[in-house]
Write a structure and sequence with these properties.
Oligomer: homodimer
Shape of chain A: elongated
Strand order of the largest sheet of chain A: 1-3-2
Radius of gyration of chain A: 22 Å
Order of helices and strands of chain A: HEHHEEHHHH
Number of helices of chain A: 7
Number of strands of chain A: 3
Largest interface: A-B, 59 and 59 residues
Helix content of chain A: 55-70%
Strand content of chain A: 5-15%
Structural class of chain A: mainly alpha
Chain lengths: 185, 185
Amino acid sequence: MARQSQTDLAVLGALSIQPMTGYELRQAITDVLGHFWHESFGQIYPCLATLQQLGFVTSTSVDRSSTYRITAAGRRELTRRLRDEPERQQPRNATLLRVFFGASLDDNDLAAILDRTELQAREQLSTFAAAREQIANGEHHSVHGHYWLATVSAGEHAARAQLAWVNETRATILAPPKSSGKDSP
Amino acid sequence: MARQSQTDLAVLGALSIQPMTGYELRQAITDVLGHFWHESFGQIYPCLATLQQLGFVTSTSVDRSSTYRITAAGRRELTRRLRDEPERQQPRNATLLRVFFGASLDDNDLAAILDRTELQAREQLSTFAAAREQIANGEHHSVHGHYWLATVSAGEHAARAQLAWVNETRATILAPPKSSGKDSP
DNA sequence: TGTCTCATGTAATCCGTTACATGATTGG
DNA sequence: CCAATCATGTAACGGATTACATGAGACA
């Protein structure tokens, strides 16, 4: 059997915080979990239908939109599912793949790869800073603030580690750029 | 259009270091790139067939096994493909998902999640130490040693960042274990 | 003899993204 | 009036894993 999907976990978890429509669900996941999780509509809508059939959520329709609400059984299921250990996903880091085969590239190309990595890490750090502000301002449900912050912190640690690696790696694998004049004795 | 596969990149790259059979290819990818890449037979064999049709590799059959060799065109293709920027993959971190919804778990379950994370990071660090030794002993092709080392170092930075995060997070979200006696004033 | 590793390949299936189809409402 | 956003859903497709099928050689 293939990997069990964890979409239901994300959906159930989000609905445990607030009732939402499918559309809002997608937004919430993108905005709040975006730095470590992702769901597309093609996953969310079928998932909601299944969860409803299983009695883990109920929906109330108004106009053209349906708001989903987690049930007591849904909360129990959520706790159960959160507990069991996820099988670890196979890693696929496209950047490291490129670095590993760096012998087939010249220094310019390698430098570009490292620059991109640095830029991405910096971008992430600034989104994390924004998230910290949001949490501090209590714009969201305070009960979950601590947990949210923990995930943000994980992202920050990872991003800072990337920056450190980029700097180290620039020094290691890039030939030192020739200084134009001959100023060593 | 969906994400372009990077299997051909990994295969072509591996063959740029050494001619190999499909089976050996899988082994090499697992052993050497294992900490940041993964390929299964179901990907490798069809990929080799395609690459051969495109003229990027050739094969010589002995007995029941075929050894694949990269061609000059294959090397050019490899360089080209290494250069273009990979679209960044959607993140899916099952651990952080569980931490985020930590309000639905009790401290024991959360502690177990952090313990698992710590253990994984430590395991990784020891495999990295082993890899460093292999590289130092020059058991592999020396030209690529620097690049390999760079990828190992990336793994180490990431693993250490995880350890730091686990410790920080234990202090933050786990209730401090009650000391049995009342020793505060 | 039986199990393990080497070796190749295909078929079923799942997971997930993207594209498509549809339409209401809001604001410039 | 037109574009953007809200809102729902399905179909097609691609990528990847897993299971299955097959068989040789080593070695215990």
